[in-house]
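Methods — Computational structure assignment.
A single polypeptide chain was analysed. Its primary sequence is given first, followed by the predicted tertiary structure written as structure tokens.
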Amino acid sequence: MFQFKYNLNDIHLYEWGDLWWFEYEVQVGLWALQDLIKYQEEIYHLRKDEFIKSKEKRLAQIPVEYKDSYEQHSFEDGDRTFTELIKIQRNSVCLSIFSYLEGQLIKLLRMMAKVFKIDIEPPTTGILSSIKGTMENTFEVNNESYQRYFGNIINQLGTRNAIAHENSHITDKKKFRKTEGLELRGLEIIISDIKYLEFLINQAEKLFENLLVAIDKRLSICT
């Protein structure tokens, strides 16, 4: 389980008290996603190790002249299954991170609409870019401290959309943003390491951490 740690020097005392509870809720959700990544990886490697040991044990009982043929026919499907499994696991977590992020940002917009007394219609398409524009143009929450993290996440939408709609294939290489743990093999995007998923969570944490403070400061000016 992820360790809950707080640095008292980093705590912002919100004027708008609901932001404290919202921040806590978001942080717990992101910690849960981190645990999900960890547990899925552990289970994958455990099952793969068991498969390899079983494979080696059975091969040891096969005459040498038949080993290559037996291995190809008996274990090729298993090898491919594990390759596909890790791809599905990591892609699923990637989409879950974006889904959670979008959902929490829409919830935040609705909260802001009430307290700022501004009527808005939450976006249903182009969610991240639309929310960023609403923050800046409608609520006038402009602060570079959060905008850079918003930008970093939006830059990964090419990967998110390719995974969600094109079975990880990207038709326009210009939309691919090279990041640690993410590779482009031909036109297929591969999450080769969980460092990419950890990067997304880290950027989401930084985004909310700075955005909520910027919102609170903006609200204090309006009231």
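Note: Residues 25 and 104 are 9 Å apart (CA to CA).
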